[in-house]
Amino acid sequence: EDGYDLWLRYQTLPESYAKDVNRTIKNLVPGDINDPTRALAIEELQTGFSKMLGKPLPIKSNAGKASLMLLTSEALAQISNDVDTAKLTELGDEGYLLTQAKINNKPVTLIAANSEQGLLYGAFELLQQMQLQTSLKELNHSSSPKIQRRVLNHWDNLDGSVERGYAGSSIWDWWELPGVINPRYKDYARANAALGINGTVLNNVNSKAISLDHRYIEKAAALAEVFRPYGIKVYLSARFNAPMELDGFENADPQNPKVRQWWKDKAKEIYQIIPNFGGFLVKANSEGQPGPGDYGRSHAEGANMLAEALEPYGGIVMWRAFVYSEHDAEDRGKQAYNEFKPLDGKFKDNVLLQVKNGPIDFQPREPYHPLFGAMPNTPLMMEFQITKEYLGFATHIAYLAPLYQEVLAADTFAKGKGSTVAKVIDGSLDGHKLTGIAGVANIGHHRNWSGSIFNQANWYAFGRLAWDPYADSQTIGRDWLALTFTNEEQFTEPTLGMMMRSREAVVDYMTPLGLAHLMATGHHYGPGPWVSDLGRPEWNPAYYHKADKNGIGFDRTKTGSNALAQYSKEVAQSFADPKTMDERYLLWFHHLPWDFKLQSGKTLWQGLVEHYDHGVEEAKAMQQTWQSLKPYVDQERFTDTAQRLQIQVDEAQWWRDASLAYFSHVSGKAIPQGTTPPKHDLQYYIKLSFPYAPGN
Ligand code: BDP
User: Fold this and answer.
1) CA 368 to chain centre
2) What are phi and psi of 70, to 5 degrees?
3) Architecture of domain 507-554+591-687
4) Which of 149, 351, 405, 602 could form a disulfide with 606 if both were Cys (CB 3.0 to 4.6 A apart)?
5) Which entry of 156, 361, 383, 657 is annotated as an active-site residue?
6) Predicted ipTM > 0.95
7) Category of 90 on φ-ψ map: left (φ > 0), alpha (ψ -120 to 50) or beta
8) Gene3D superfamilies annotated for this entry (predicted)?
């Protein structure tokens, strides 16, 4: 068990359940396997049945004898009226129905959908339900995605490195493509299609123009070919000044007709070899990337130029709202809103604005981004980070579904109570048709794909929440555990408990009570709250915590940056009073004296120390739980996880000690009595360096 098979392990089923399946499903009527997507559905079913039950299903062509059928709604209507076709229609292009139906008066297990794609999703779901040992007789399950574009963002570079990647180098071998098609590309597509992911951006948002050069388009086309029958579209990150870098143009100004024509020609060239190309993802005027701002043009003008080029072919632009500049450094968290809100309604119909979940940058905890709910006339797309840049890379366990769910369920009050972020991005709040969600992938060439077994859970959870942003992180976690290890409750329940608390543990030992961005320079791994010497103010941890002898925290109320005013009245009010608000966001919004009284009655300083201690205790508790689960886990995955947990315990301690050494130093507060002092003095922690940390 090296983790390669992800959620498609298809372990031999226990005898009693296998009997049940054998009684219900005796053969398979595949339908027209000339369709490549249907052929894959059949192939997957046969792989699954062979592995789980020891043999593939006998293939029958005669519907009269069928026990498992895959039927599109059209085909179904011709042979049976047992299924409500109106209900099927509601499932749209990608939904499916799994049910027991009567066909020719005989009971049949039916996968029905409006498209071949829906049938493929249905086949994966049937196999998942079998792995979870759901009784097939009770199967009556329909599902359709609530979000249209469910996309992974690979931050993969053409030289094979991965920005913020902790699972080895890129799985794309750009050098050998398009000649060599690694079988792993197909396994990648299978794993994603099993979750309903239907798009992938192949290259880093910090992109190179050469990705749009003909040679590289051919390489991307080879991948697109593998992914197409799985329903996965390829997208590319586009460098805004590509006309200059590739073809020597003098500028990349969106008002320049020649530049506009260049993008039109480029789109045409791409669609000639990738007919189902998804479109472009663009990081512009952000962290040194070129963009329309270089010519005094707005983000809307830049995005619309690309949108116009893609429009004839049905392509879209995913334009990122991740911008901040040193010239307006009072509060970095306010800048995206200030820049984009005035552009609401100015984007073309095939543009999605891609917004990170929080206003700063993928921190262990942030409030939701104030743009959600603030741009009703523009479809906003969510960007989550699956790779754990700020949550311990691949060595710490942090199950991210609770983080995702916390943001999706947050109420923006944009149109009154219940205007959740999920409703903003699934289009239901403002009536948008084009909708999307992106996850920055944690995938690399490591045999287990994600660098650690538990990191796979974050990829899985992203996929499930992209399909249904209202899904519950517990259920997702439980399913993942059953698919990945075993569904014995003695294993799943304690492990799920550990997963569900893991993210909060990280918050506690890294950035409790609403603190953020305290990571050391460059690698974002260890603590560096003392760092204050970097070129731009908002690159320094000291800018974010603002701790001195009088207090700590970032004042985002009226007396400070007033970022609170970017939220609706109700949300702003809920965060306005530090005495009554949700303390998980306390120091995000308030600068408070060290002796401020928390709701527990303790002082802020005591509370901070307790959170740090609690984080370390939780890491230790996870380690103990895991040790008790040894009987349920194979040696390889048990040991690998145990080793990582040991690192996590040691590093939780490091984070706690270094942070408390520093905060005690700036505040002049002694470590409270009865609390263990940091192992070393502050200088020791400051001097540690990590020149070869991965992912830079
Ligand atoms: C930051 C990462 C940086 C990315 C940037 C982005 O540190 O590597 O390029 O986000 O999202 O968090 O563009």
Assistant:
1) 15
2) -115, 115
3) Alpha-Beta Complex (3.90)
4) 602
5) 361
6) yes
7) alpha
8) Alpha-glucuronidase, C-terminal domain (3.90.1330.10), Chitobiase/beta-hexosaminidase domain 2-like (3.30.379.10), Glycosidases (3.20.20.80)
What is the per-residue pLDDT across 436-454, written as a single tens digit (0 to 9) for each? 999 999 999 999 999 999 9
CB proximity list for 36: less than 8 A, separation 6 or greater: 228, 229
- CA 556 – CA 358 distance, rounded (Å): 15
Pocket of ligand 1 (CB under 6 A): 163-164, 205-206, 283, 287, 322, 361-362, 389
Which pLDDT belongs to residue 521?
85
Residues of the chain with pLDDT under 50: none
- Distance of alpha carbon 87 from alpha carbon 209, whole angstroms: 47
| Cα of 54 from ligand 1 centre, angstroms | 47
Domain boundaries, the chain: 15-143, 149-484, 507-554+591-687
Cβ atoms of residues 252 and 241 within 8 Å: yes
Among 328, 325, 385, smallest CA distance to 354 is for 385
Note the pTM of the prediction, 2 decimals: 0.98
Query: What spacing in Å lies between the alpha carbon of 365 and ligand 1's midpoint?
Result: 16
Six-digit token pair at 55?
A: 């043999």
Question: 2, 93, 247, 287: which one is catalytic?
Answer: 287
Predicted pLDDT of residue 80: 85
Give me the pLDDT at residue 63, please: 78
Positive or negative, the CA dihedral 189, 194, 199, 204 is: negative
Looking at the domain that runs over 149-484, which CATH code has it been given?
3.20.20.80
Ligand 1, atom 1, residue with closest C-alpha: 361
Domain 15-143 in CATH: superfamily?
Answer: Chitobiase/beta-hexosaminidase domain 2-like (3.30.379.10)
Strand 106-113 with 96-103, pairing? antiparallel
pLDDT of residue 522: 78
Identity of residue 112:
A
Exposed, middle or buried, 152 (CB in 10 Å: 0-12/13-18/19+)?
buried
> Do the Cβ atoms of 522 and 693 come closer than 8 Å?
yes
Pick the residue whose CA is nearest to atom 10 on ligand 1: 361
The b/e string for 307-336 (b: 16+ C-beta within 10 A; e otherwise) is bbbbbebebbbbbbbbbbeeeeeebbbbbb
How far the first Cα of the chain sits from its last, in Å, is 30
